[in-house]
C-alpha cells in the first residue's frame, strides 16, 4: 500500500470537529462536555469512522464504550458540573469541582497501591505488582495512556491528575533484579494503560531483557492491550508495523510464549478488515491472542453478544479467556450489573458455545483477596447460595476451594456478599487480615 495510516485523537478539546457528532442534539453534545470534565475522554478516527454505527447512537455499544454518557455521573454530580459550566465559572473552579467528584468515584479500588507493590531491600518497587505467585505485572512508564479510553476503565485515575496515583514510572530497572531472583515467576505481564501505545524501541527496551538467560524461568510474556480493537493499524499499515511484527517473531523464536491479551467488549470490534488483517498478522508471528473484557450494562449485558463474540473469536484464532465483573470505581453505577445477572448471562452464553470456546473463565471479580469466580447459583440444605471459587489468590492454597455466600439478587461485588449457612466469615478472611497487618 505504501501509505501509512495516521491516528487522529479526539477529546474534550476537539470532538466537535468529528463530522458525525454534528448530527447529535446540542443537549447530547453538552452532556459529553460536562461528563468529560470529570472522567477522561479520548477516541480516534478508526473508532469514529469504522467501529461506531452512528445510526444506532446513542445505544451503539462502541459509542457507549468510548463516549462519556450523562448517566455516568449521579444526578447531583452532573447538575453541579453542568451548572458550573453554564454559569461560566473559571476553568480553575470547574477543575476543582471535577476533582471533588473524582474522589467520590473511588479512584483506587481493591487496595492495589498498598498490597500489591513488592519490596526489595526494604524499598517498594515502583511500577510492578506481584499479587499472584506466578505472574508479575509491569507498568511501563511510557505505556500509561491508551489509543482511546474505555468509558468503564478502572484505571481512569491514572490518566488524569487525581493525585500521585500512577503505579508506573519504571525508570530505574530495579524490578529486573527482583524478577530475576524470584524464580517462581513464570509470567511477566506488561500492562498499563496500554503498553502497545509505545514505540517498538520502547517495547524492546522493556521486553528484551527477559530473553536473556537469567530469565529462563520466565516462560511467557503477556501484553495486555486494547490496541487490536482501538487501533488495529498498529499491526498492518502503521509506520512501525513490520518492525513490531518482526519483534514478536523474535520473542517467539527465543523460545518464550508470547500472549497478546486483547480486550474485546463486543463482536462489533471483530468485524472490520483492519482488525481481521491485524489478527492474521499477529498469529503469523507465532504469538497467541487471548481475549478478555468486563461485562457491563449498555455494552454487552446480553448472552447473545458474548456467545457470538466467543464463537467469532474461535473462528479467527483467538482464545476466549476471561469475563470480568466491572470494578467498583468510576462510573460503576452506570455500568454495574448484579453478580446474579452476570452469572446468568455467562451460563447462557457458555452453554451455547462449543468446547473450543469454553476456555473462557468467569464471571470473575479481581478483588482484594484474589480473582473470585462466580461458579454457580445453587441450593444447599434449603438455602439459596452463590458458589464461589478462587481462580487466583494471594495465598495459592485458597485456589479451588468452593465457598458459599448467601444468595443476593442485588449484590454487585464480593464485599456485598455475606457468608452462607450463618457463618461469620469467609474461610480466607482471618488470613487476609494478617496479611494486611504485615504491610
Ligand atoms: C488477573 C491478574 C493476573 C493474571 O492472572 P491470570 O489468571 O494468570 O490471568 C496477575 N496479576 C494480577 C494482579 C491480576 O489481577
Ligand atoms: S484499554 Fe484498558 S486501560 Fe485503556 S482505557 Fe480501556 S480499560 Fe482503560
Provide an overview of this structure:
This protein has 439 residues and is an alpha/beta fold. It has a domain at 1-72 and 105-327: Aldolase class I (TIM Barrel, Alpha-Beta Barrel), CATH 3.20.20. It is 32% helix and 19% strand. The chain has helices spanning 26-36, 45-51, 61-66, 75-86, 91-104, 112-115, 156-159, 174-181, 200-207, 227-230, 241-253, 273-284, 303-316, 332-335, 339-350, 429-437; strands at residues 9-11, 42-44, 119-120, 123-124, 128-132, 135-138, 187-190, 220-225, 257-263, 288-295, 318-325, 361-366, 370-380, 383-393, 403-406. It has an eleven-stranded mixed β-sheet. A two-stranded antiparallel ribbon has the order 1-2. A two-stranded antiparallel ribbon has the order 3-4. Helix 1 crosses helix 4 (75-86) and helix 4 (75-86) runs antiparallel to helix 5 (91-104). The longest helix has 14 residues, at 91-104. The protein is globular and about 55 Å long. The mean pLDDT is 93. The chain binds pyridoxal-5'-phosphate and iron/sulfur cluster. The site of pyridoxal-5'-phosphate (PLP) has 10 residues, from strand 5, strand 6 and strand 14.
Q: CATH topology of one domain, what is it called? A: TIM Barrel
Query: Which CATH first-tier class of one domain would you pick?
Result: Alpha Beta
Q: Main β-sheet, in a few words?
A: 11 strands, mixed
Radius of gyration: 22 Å
Bound molecules: pyridoxal-5'-phosphate, iron/sulfur cluster
Please identify which CATH superfamily of one domain we are dealing with.
Answer: Aldolase class I
Q: Determine the N-to-C terminus distance.
A: 55 Å
Report the portion of residues in β strands.
15-25%
Helix-residue proportion: 25-40%
Categorize the overall geometry: globular
CATH architecture of one domain: Alpha-Beta Barrel
What is the number of helices?
16
Mean pLDDT: 93
Which blocks of ≥5 consecutive residues have pLDDT under 50? none
Structural class: alpha/beta
Strand order of the largest sheet: 5-6-7-8-9-10-11-12-13-14-15
